[in-house]
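User: Sorry, folds how?
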Amino acid sequence: MNWKKVALAALMLLALAAPAMASRDLIELMRSDLRTEKRGIITQAMQLNEEQSNKFWPLYKEYEDQLVKLNDQRVTLIKDYAAVYNSMTDKNAKDLVGRSFKLEEQRTSLLKKYVSKMGKTVDMKTAARWAQVEQALDSAIDLQIASELPLLQ
């Protein structure tokens, strides 16, 4: 797996925290590149035959469309964090942490929903393998983003 490319793409997402660099077109280009890299890694890891592939990819596209919506919220959260970083109050911190937990819960719920759908459409073993790959990629991206965001003072 090409984890370095995924980590690089995740780093590009961090540009979102810097408003001067974060034009809408640039953000969309970076996110598109990340999705392309992620799809490539999933393709390589899944080793699907043609029948499985024909069932898997339409469901994955549905999942990805829903995940994009959650990631839009995550981008907003990172921007909001950057906006109040130097003047963080307890109220800001509580709001940001709450929103972060909620997004993580929604992402987990989304993955569970699509593992179930894939288990019924493809087979459970393939669905579980996809969940394993998806969680590993998400963890790598999360770690990269977390390592680049400054801790609160």
About this structure: The helical segments are 3-14, 24-46, 50-84, 90-121, 124-148. DSSP finds five helices and no strands in the chain.
